[in-house]
Amino acid sequence: MSIDKDLLDRLMEGRSPGDLFGQTGILAELTKALAERALSTEMDVHLDEERADNVSEGCNQTANRRNGSSQKTVTTDSGKVVLDIPRDRNGTFDPVLIAKYQRRFPEFDRKIISMYARGMTTREIQGHIEEIYGVEASPSLICAITDAVMEEITAWQNRPLEPCYPIVFMDAIRVNIRSDGAVSNKAVFVALAVLPDGTRDVLGLWFQANEGAKFWAKVLGDLRNRGVQDILIAVVDGLKGFPPAIEAAFPQTRIQTCIVHLLRHSMNFASYKDRKTVAAALKAIYTAVDAFAAEMALTEFEDSDLAKRYPAIAPSWRRAWNEVIPFLDYPPEVRRLIYTTNAIEALNSKIRRAVRTRGHFPSDDAAAKLIYLALNATSNEWKRSVREWHAVRSQLAIMFEDRFPMA
User: Fold this and answer.
1) With CB atoms counted within 10 Å of each terminal CB, which end of the chain scores lower, N or C?
2) Residue 32: what pLDDT?
3) Residue 233 β-bridge partners
4) Is 158 exposed, middle or buried (0-12, 13-18, 19+ CB in 10 A)?
5) Residues with Cβ within 8 Å of residue 129, at least 6 apart in sequence
6) What is the spatial distance between Cα 388 and Cα 397, in angstroms, rounded to a whole number?
7) Using one digit for the tens of pLDDT, what is the confidence trace for 65-95?
8) Burial (Cβ within 10 Å: 0-12, 13-18, ≥19) of residue 274
9) Do 205 and 120 fall into the same domain?
């Protein structure tokens, strides 16, 4: 419903555009007037409900009624506003709009959380709040507001998951975390899953200084405890200890190494002038029609002058061969999706953008808080459905038959 233009003209009469904002601006006045009107309506409803309850229960006690008001200063988007909060004689009125012990409108808290999620430091948020709203927000207040999401994070980390995920991408980012007076570089592992309908979801975050089979057993055990019974394809970037751990937890899962990461690793050994030639030679391996043709292409590369010039490249492919060849069994539609972990790398780039402003975090929880908020702030981008999923889904349903979850 649009607001009447004549009413707006009357409100703005005698005022300049500069009189809109700030503690003495018209928005603050409107906030006060509308809030007090809403509180008065809440009180009317509360008293009516109490009277109705008394009648139904046959009570003869004196009906509750208004008992003046008390003032409360609350922080809003327009600054601080003094509200007249209505009171009742029985002291049973607890307003919904602004609860008894609440000193800030919820929208004000959401703005602080939004700024924090975008990587702004506590000091930057402080300055922004003071500059825009004329309100002094202490560091402890900002921490208290953002810390309030920790219960939400715990619930998210322990939420039930789907029984089967067609594809799960695993990757990590590095963050600096202070522990026992020293700053250590920890990996934060992220699991990005493709759901049966083609949409994506982050299954969780796991912190670890060093990866290994024991760590991955814990991660995969966590997924099992939360309801995951099967993963069709796990796309990873040579994670140490991952293959034996996933074989124990999900024995039917196919492990696929990220081809792009393997290519980048190979390019690190080649001089700049030879990189295009090396890339073309390696392309013959991962675009081969089947594993036999790929083996022939790799053998041909091993016998070439390029391999002799850069002797570390071919062995790196041989070491990862068991995780490369599953890729060659898939049709083109599936290959295009699992060829790279770019899907999760794009997600990680958004996380890195948020954590870049922090030199280090005081704890794992502090890092988890920012990462979780950053994920929520950008969810509309990374949760989008996989392109051409209908074609991929059809191929996966054929390949994995009764294991593929049908909606």
Assistant:
1) N
2) 72
3) 167, 254
4) exposed
5) 112, 135, 136, 137
6) 15
7) 888 888 887 776 556 778 888 888 888 887 7
8) middle
9) no
